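User: I've been trying to design a sequence by hand for this structure and keep getting stuck. Would you show me what you'd pick, starting by listing the structure so we're on the same page?

Assistant: Good idea, let's start from the same input. This is the structure you sent:
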């Protein structure tokens, strides 16, 4: 496997300038496919984090972005999207190099879709943030309006599985609404967010301090962002465990918070499903990005009437998937992001065996290509005879492990689908679209695809029920989570007469009142 790029170095992007961390600490990043170093990045300290927050706060007060009108913000975000578009190939390769996603996925999905989503946020910025409310004539005529205003400074913390897309989902709506931002990418995968900041900086597209990007540990930078009094809103995507902690700290400080957390999504196959579509669909649902997606379809619910034929076709297809160098366009399955993630997934495979599930393909080891020896590869793994109560069916594995669960009646399938602490996504597969929609209605999840999976669209909301999070990203209301609503009441009567409510404290001394007081 060849090294695709020379080692680049990145500092911290604070107040429109690059700098090393205050204690000069750095971290080397390694290619998950071969273990070779790919970049050196600064590790921010608490003092660096405070400096970034102060820069963001100052820019917000100056109004250099927060007071700019929506049309101008839309123009700038569109210009950023154009700039990113010019660098799609470079960003795709960088994303693959850093996180191990196949270049087929980064170049077809992650980077172009991220840019499309940014264009959508630009459209939302253009929409007028002021809305007139219906005319009110009681107790006196008044005009009433609702203004949406930016919240202030947003601390944004993102995970390693979709580094570019997650950065866009965070900074896109925040900037569209006029906020200033401190973005903390995951320690493992900051490169495309840093490159994006570099491109924006070189083009001079944003005023200093409006966008700050800090690399560093969650326990240092992340903790500071969630507790700092000058952070008005925290937006987080990542594990449910850290999300719970963030909600607690943000709750104590009454910060606005949105959380997009884990999932254990069911893929519910009905007896009449078209197997040509559904077998490949189940593979797409479970193994896209080696299963490292929060919405991955990791519980495959099969009716007993279809089970054996479906499993045979599924296993046959899965065993043919090409595991290899993610830069190679013929590769179907790339490495996991890190050695630690590989260890976690292998522990779950051992657990599945110990819990009594049947390993039908994949499992630990079995990758003999010496070119892949230093990468974090795990073969796509299918377990059958899984009970929904097993830990492998309840816990988020975040790797290429699919649990097949057999059911007899559709009501049982719906109960199994909902028998999870998560509620991020699901899919239902059937030729009967009316029945599929009825089942979709009964599944407690933020997104349900019918005869598809993973298709997240900027124009539709995305987020979780239950332990999968709080709030929604994307969709027509994507800016709501980044704005405060202000009600403006304008008196139209322009007279003192008739304001009987003012008389409660400051009575008008007219004749009737004099009579009243002489009684
Ligand atoms: P997390 O620990 O949740 O990390 C996500 C982000 O939060 C990273 O930027 C991380 O920084 C930061 N962070 C960590 N501790 C923090 C703290 N105390 N305060 C504020 N920010 C903090 O996820 P992970 O360790 O990368 O992965 C662990 C598991 O989480 C995975 O196995 C998977 O199950 C799940 N996961 C879920 C998702 C989604 S999209 N739901 C995405 C990734 C992982 P550092 O990178 O510096 O630690």
């Amino acid at each position: 496997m060849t090294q695709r790029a020379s080692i680049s170095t990145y500092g911290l992007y604070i107040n429109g300038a690059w700098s090393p961390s205050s204690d000069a600490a750095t971290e080397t990043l390694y290619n998950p496919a071969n273990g070779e170093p790919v970049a050196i990045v600064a590790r921010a300290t608490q003092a660096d984090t405070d400096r970034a927050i102060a820069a963001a706060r100052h820019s917000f007060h100056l109004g250099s972005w927060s007071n700019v009108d929506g049309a101008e913000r839309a123009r700038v975000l569109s210009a950023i999207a154009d700039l990113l578009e010019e660098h799609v190939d470079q960003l795709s390769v960088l994303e693959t190099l850093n996180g191990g996603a196949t270049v087929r996925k980064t170049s077809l999905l992650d980077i172009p879709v991220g840019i499309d989503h940014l264009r959508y946020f630009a459209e939302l910025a253009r929409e007028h943030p002021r809305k007139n409310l219906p005319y009110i004539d009681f107790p006196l005529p008044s005009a009433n309006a609702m203004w949406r205003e930016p919240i202030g400074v947003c601390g944004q913390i993102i995970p390693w599985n979709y580094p570019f897309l997650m950065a866009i989902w965070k900074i896109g709506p925040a900037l569209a609404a006029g906020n200033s931002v401190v973005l903390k990418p995951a320690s493992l995968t900051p490169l495309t967010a840093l490159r994006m900041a570099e491109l924006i900086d070189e083009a001079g597209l944003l005023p200093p301090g409006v966008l700050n990007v800090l690399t560093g540990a969650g326990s240092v930078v992340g903790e500071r962002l969630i507790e700092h009094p000058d952070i008005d809103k925290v937006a987080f995507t990542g594990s449910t465990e850290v999300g719970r902690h963030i909600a607690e700290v943000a709750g104590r400080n009454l910060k606005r918070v949105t959380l997009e957390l884990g999932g254990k999504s069911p893929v519910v196959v009905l007896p009449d499903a078209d197997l040509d579509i559904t077998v490949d669909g189940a593979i797409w649902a479970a193994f896209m990005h080696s299963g490292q997606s929060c919405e991955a379809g990791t519980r495959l619910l099969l009716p007993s009437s279809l089970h054996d034929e479906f499993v045979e076709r599924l296993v046959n297809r899965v065993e043919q998937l090409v595991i290899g160098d993610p830069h190679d366009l013929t590769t179907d399955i790339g490495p996991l992001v890190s050695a630690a993630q590989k260890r976690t997934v292998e522990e779950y495979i051992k657990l599945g065996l110990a819990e009594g599930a049947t390993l039908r393909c994949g499992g630990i080891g079995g990758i003999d290509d010496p070119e892949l020896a230093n990468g974090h590869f795990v073969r796509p793994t299918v377990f059958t005879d899984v009970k929904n109560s097993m830990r492998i069916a309840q816990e988020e594995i975040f790797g290429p492990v699919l649990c097949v669960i057999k059911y007899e009646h559709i009501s049982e399938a719906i109960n199994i689908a909902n028998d999870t602490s998560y509620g991020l996504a699901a899919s239902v597969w059937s030729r009967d679209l009316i029945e599929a929609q009825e089942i979709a209605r009964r599944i407690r999840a933020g997104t349900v695809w019918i005869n598809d999976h993973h298709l997240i669209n900027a124009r539709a909301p995305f987020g979780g029920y239950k332990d999968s999070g709080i709030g929604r990203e994307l969709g027509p209301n994507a800016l709501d989570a980044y704005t405060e609503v202000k009600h403006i009441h304008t008196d139209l009567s322009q007279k003192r007469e008739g304001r009987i409510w003012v008389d409660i404290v400051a009575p008008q001394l007219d004749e009737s009142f004099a009579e009243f007081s002489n009684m």
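That's my pick for every position. To get oriented when you compare it with your attempt: Residues 157-161, 184, 186-187, 217-219, 222-223, 226, 237-239, 242, 245, 261-262, 294, 344, 396, 398 surround TAP (CB under 6 Å). The chain has 16 helices and 23 strands.
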